[in-house]
Amino acid sequence: MKHKVLGVVNLIHETDELERLTQSRCLATVPFGARYRLIDFVLSSMVNSGISQVAVFAHTKFRSLMDHLGSGKHWDLQHRQSGLFILPPATDDIQEISRGDLYHFYQHRDYFERSTWEYVVITRSHMVCNVDFEAVINHHLEQEADITVVCKRETQPSPGKARKVKMEDDGRITSIQDHYGRMLSDIVSMEMYVMRKELLMELVETSLAQGQDHLVRHAIFSRLGQLKVHGYMYEGYLGVVNTLTSYYDHSMSLLQPEVWKELFYQPGPIYTKVKDEPPARYTSGSHVSNSLIANGCRIEGTVLNSILFRGVHVEKGALIKDSIIMQNGKVGENSFVSNCILDKDVQVEGNRDLRGTEGTPFLAGKKRVI
Amino acid sequence: MGRKEMIAMLLAGGEGKRLGVLTKDLAKPAVYFGGKYRIIDFTLSNCAHSGIDTVGVLTQYQPLELNRYLGIGSPWGLDRRDGGMTILPPYMKQKGGVWYKGTANAIYQNMAFIERYNPEYVLVISGDHIYKMDYELMLQHHKRCEADVTIAGIAVDWKEASRFGVMHVDDEDRITAFEEKPKNPTSNIASMGVYIFSWKALQKYLIYDEASRGSSHDFGKDVIPAMMRDGLRLHCYSYKGYWKDVGTIESLWEANMDLIADEPELSLYDPKWRIYSVNPNMPAQLTTETAQVTSSFVTEGCILEGTVDRSVLFFGVNAEKGSYISESVIMPNVRIGEGARIHRAIIGEGAVIQAGVIIGDPLDDAITVVAVDQYVAVDHELLEVEPS
After folding, report:
1. What are the tens digits of pLDDT across the range A84-131?
2. What residue stretches are annotated with the Glucose-1-phosphate adenylyltransferase/Bifunctional protein GlmU-like C-terminal hexapeptide domain (chain A) (predicted)?
3. ipTM of predicted complex
4. CATH code for position B52
């Protein structure tokens, strides 16, 4: 990228209604799409756009995040001069942890000040998309905007929770509403903000001085009149994944070949932490239709309209339907699983019958034996 | 630099002539195998699991893609501060340079590399075979026998014995006779091309072999027979398990087919003995409503809309609607058009099979090979390999 841009993935107070799936992990590392974690999508978008330094503001339950990101090398973020920085809350008082993102940015202000990057792209981790940030930056410069917000026009209301945005014909944003508002608009914010680093630091300092500590709700909302806040319309696939329904629905939409080809490849590939799993093995009695299968799976039974993560074992006579089975899950002989989400390492023994209903999938927590 | 007990020298310069178009621009160890691997992954993973952290990889023929693949050895845990992976091509010396004239000469030319680590033992292996072996156990055997050389041996079919170096072994595993590719073999214990040498003995014989006129500078043909003649202690480490030389189109095809049995002899699923490789990082495979997949090995990045039976599919393969693939090996990023039928074939990386093309005849045993990046139109003539 021509311009020096710092990527910031902000995990502080992400809206999270994923129930058990986020019991022991943060939203950013919820497994998604047979082999990814949610954060992979923004991280890969940044890297593919030429951003070579990314700071991840971790907040809570970040063990799985540290494990997943490691040194950043799987996203090509392990370089001599830049790369990946994980910044967990830096505070003496445990109560301060619950304060807003601006407070945490302030605590790490040295990090921003030390870097020589001119612009920042601040994102969340739960937007499943494939964005070209270089185009966003160019748009930002052409419009001479103070802040550019990446937005998406929804053709149908998303089951996820997103902020609605009102935009003028010239692209200027006149109002943004919180997740629970009832404003009528088909444009949602993808919670991606581009601005000069200096402006961000200014917003941090002035807001905190006024006792406000939320970037969007305080710093941006209240300045829509003074600052030139513009929208950039993203045209690609978007999944706002922060509720269980949206998790299930967007997972299932990956089974459409057009979505698969676009989301995982256009404009750039989505990277994740690789594992040395062997290819998936289909045995003589296997039957698989309309499903997403990761490496390392062994399929001896039937899999319909489902997603199998790496290393899932489907034994003989088992039938999996409309379900999501995460890493190293096992479905025993002659068991029936439909409309279920089974977290990592769930073992379904033989002859079990597990059913959720359409719209309310049955969710089994990590390592459960059923 | 600290002393290493044992380092490995991996011979990876083979041309693989008998693999024809598959090795036209590629060294044999870099040939794809088993849905996501390259042949050399097996020996490198063996090193990783046997605790060997210093590996010299000797390259010569078409090294470009192999070098790029190996990188600094990170996928096999060989990016190390002391040791790690070093690629050793032939090089110019003050008095001029020469190509590697044979397996022994390749090691001879790199004696300086070995000396840097001053090892007690040197493991010599080749990047041409598919097997899982713990070299540490073999080293223990070598020490127990107080051997100068230990050669890994495996019982092969009598019919095939003449393709290998064969050994006669006594009750204490000592090798009493060694014949390289005999016309009429009198033993069926074949050398697997896996040697552990006590370095001092090897060093002496490499220098001796280099000076011998008429030597072809080959371990099997020259160095081992010379050691036998001089009465050194040569022992056999008998290996039981899956081992396959994938030097021909037919054996490469067979070894791939071995993987798709419901209970394959070579398991790639052992969590303690993962085969490491460079992972392509592609999305999970999508098996659509029109797809039917049985008895197959399929890798990430594939979109399957047709029928796949008893086949091995590498990453990024697109099998369109109505296509029918059976008993075939489809290498990465191949596109198979609508209604194409492929039987008993090896399709090279990046090839495009046009809609409606028919490759192979279900009534015939011949294996058809499609070259890398080849575009196959409906009336195209293809190379067929008759089974021997």
Report:
1. 999 999 888 888 888 999 999 999 999 998 888 899 999 999 999 999
2. 285-350
3. 0.90
4. 3.90.550.10
